[in-house]
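User: What would this chain look like folded?
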Amino acid sequence: MTDSPSARVLATLHGYPRQGPDRELKKAVEGYWSGRLDEDELLRTAAALRAGARHELRAAGIDEIPTGDFSLYDHVLDTAWAVGAVPPRHRDAGLGELDTYFAMARGTADVQPLEMTKWFDTNYHYLVPELDQDTAFAADPRKQVAEFEEARADGFERARPVLLGPVSFLLLAKPAPHASPGFQPLTLLDRLLPVYASLLAELRAAGAEWVQLDEPVLVQDQPGAVLGATARAYRELCAAGDRPRLLVASYFDALGEALPVLVDSPVDGLALDFTGPAAANLDALAAIGGLPGRRLVAGVVDGRNVWAADLERALSTLATLLGLAGRVDAAPSCSLLHVPLDAAAERESDPQIARWLSFARQKTAEVSVLARALAEGRDAVAPQLSAARAALASRAGSALARDTVVRERCAALGESESRRPQPYEERAAAQRARLGLPLLPTTTIGSFPQTTELRAARAGLRSGRIAEGAYRERIEREIREVIACQEKAGLDVLVHGEPERNDMVQYFAERLNGFLATRHGWVQSYGTRYVRPPILAGDVSRPAPMTLEWTGYAQSLTERPVKGMLTGPVTMLAWSFVRDDQPLADTARQVALALRDEIADLEAAGTAVVQVDEPALRELLPLRRAARPAYLEWATEAFRLATSGVRADTQVHTHMCYAEFGEILSAIEALDADVISLEAARSRMAIADELAAAGYPREVGPGVYDIHSPRVPSAEEITNLLRRALRAVPPERLWANPDCGLKTRTPEEVRAALENLTAAAREVRASVTARPDSAS
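Assistant: Here's the prediction, encoded as structure tokens.
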């Protein structure tokens, strides 16, 4: 790799969206699962998508491309496979390799999948490796080598394989269910390092000059033992004689105390984030003397948000960094997996707004402009710099950003508006009297299966192929079927099934001022689940009721209570691309006030139970502990602001899923919800024990049905989970419900699972003493 002036700064990146322009990967994988495609057809589609991405990057001016970042499901799962960390229940299931891989992700009728949780503070979900004291690692370099060789054969001399690093792999893993008490995966580091050395040697033999090892766990507060393990790991990997040069990458925040550890190690280069809170890496790197003689890949374009980059600021950062390292290359801050593919596809957007946006293809172009500016001078890219300045000025001066009425309402808020006036005990008694629910009441989280016909009806309404009246009849028919299904299953608190909603955030964003929706802005959430995060561009307000009509219609069909279903303010922010021109806390209050108005309308119409989902409360938790108290204060205040205006006998629920909640139990209590439902099936009721240990005082529904797997749990399995939950939660405060919404499952799976759920609840209910004030 030459360091001549004309090539001193390269344009590169950490990773690229996997799905293809029209989510071809999703369709191919789901086609394989359904039997419509065979393995060869799936793998050919995947190879074509990788080739297409490579050519897009070449056209954008990217000099060095990543390989190995593509995945059929999840890159952490891929790493587990590459190091041989396949649990015995999957390895011994008698399946072929590809089906074993998917069984780890989704499970089968007989085998449970790996646990799934959020990737740091993003809405991407990764599969959690399971390890124990007997785990025997073994290198399988085939995927990494094959994808690297594809790139070389396609004419990319500079291709850089990307792997999750050994320290992050172990710290992101969990002890297997049968692991010895007290076992910690990091104790396997000495066993794992030779396997990584073998993978690196195979890549070097294939011609790889550089390999990137991602260590994102190092941007979190880590104890000395982890920092020491990191230092030892990279001493050993760098000591190997037959290896490529190693680039260690981190992103999402500043490295802090881990930065000198990596700088003092013998690695050949670092890839650091210099955006948002990670901008602190600049001063920290300067303070310790930089990286003289070594490579620095500088993440100066925000890889997680969609706003056009401030190229002048990025150039200034790069210019400073040029004096701190042997060579500096320009890159986004992290993998572009976290943004949509192409802003140019949003042809229906206001042209004024479209110029503000930068998706993956635009970000690669921005990186290329930055690299060229430093290599050839600013005059070489003067038109691009001028366009970037104009876009920034246009957005800053737009009337969309400010609504005086909204700002005045927020400024006038008093503390009493974010507190329910009645204590929980008084509310609980009033709610029991109004609702008359049995012990261990049963419910679902909200959504029901989104069938092909339902999606076609929504698309038809948008395109004009279906008239409004016909669409309404279709939605009403769906709600009638959902209510009938729940009543037949014997559920106690019902939902309308959300057939009118494409997504729990997008639906509300399309009905709130200040949000912009996309048509093609798909981003992978997990596996084949893709979402279109809205773009929060201005002050938020509610011009009209959003849920009242369909909730009221559902309630008219049944005597049982039907929940009003809303998405909470923090989740609306977390699953949108947010403003970067005001504090998140200010935007959260605006969203909370819009939801408060909606809840008031639902209550006035007779809705007795309102669920305000906050699955992203843990997700937005800052990666550094010092920033967490301030975040949790405004996040919980926003939830209470949305929900505190109701009467004592209106029951407020919330829901959270697929995250590590142990660190925020005090914040969960501070929400002051009457009932909380949480994912618990894959984690085997761990959250129930954690809530009990923390003294959580209100009602809890730990999930007993893993909805991300095609498995239908038996009544016996659910009964056992409920009995386990009863060890931690008293029966008068325990609910039975699935882990999450049911939209990804089939109607047949849902009917069977809900019948088993209610049968299990009846059995457990009969075995415990009914509370004296129960209406059962």
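The mean pLDDT is 94. If you want, I can go into more detail on any region.
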